[in-house]
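Page 47, continued from p. 46.
Same chain as before, 184 aa.
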Amino acid sequence: MIAPTALVLVAYLPAPRDLEIARVLGWYRIPMRSAPKVIAVDYLAFYQPASFGERGGRIEYVAEVRGHELTTRAQLLQDEPDHPRANETYYKIQIGPLEPLPRPILAGKWRRLTFLYTTGAYLHNAASLRDLTVRDEERARLWSALRERAENAAQYRAAPSTPEIPPEILVFLVGWEDKDGKIG
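Result:
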């Protein structure tokens, strides 16, 4: 159970493949160029956009943050060496197991989201994304906690690097391979 005072980063999950990577491999990626100011949070909550079909426009899962490190997209997604952003720097955030929320948090009319800071208490009580917005004096406490985390970020050590995963295992995890042998 997430503590009411836990710092939570609601993060955009681009596609179902990214949910599988988080579930099976235990990490989530954020391009450094578009990352929020503070990634040293307690939990990530994953916003699923329209690319998830009927399960889009909601948050269904949360995961504990266990550490982070800097790497390149090419190192993270070895099946995409020719991707236009292959050499860009990314945060690799190590996470614990995905935990389903008791009830999904729906987007309602609020459909565009990349990152949003909130707390465990707001996450527990939210029915919609709008309910995750921290207001008034609690907002000042949230920003104070985030500033403190940023200053003490050195205490968050990255977990040991995950071993290279053979392509045949990635095909199993992700579910398909194109005609050129690229995993998708």
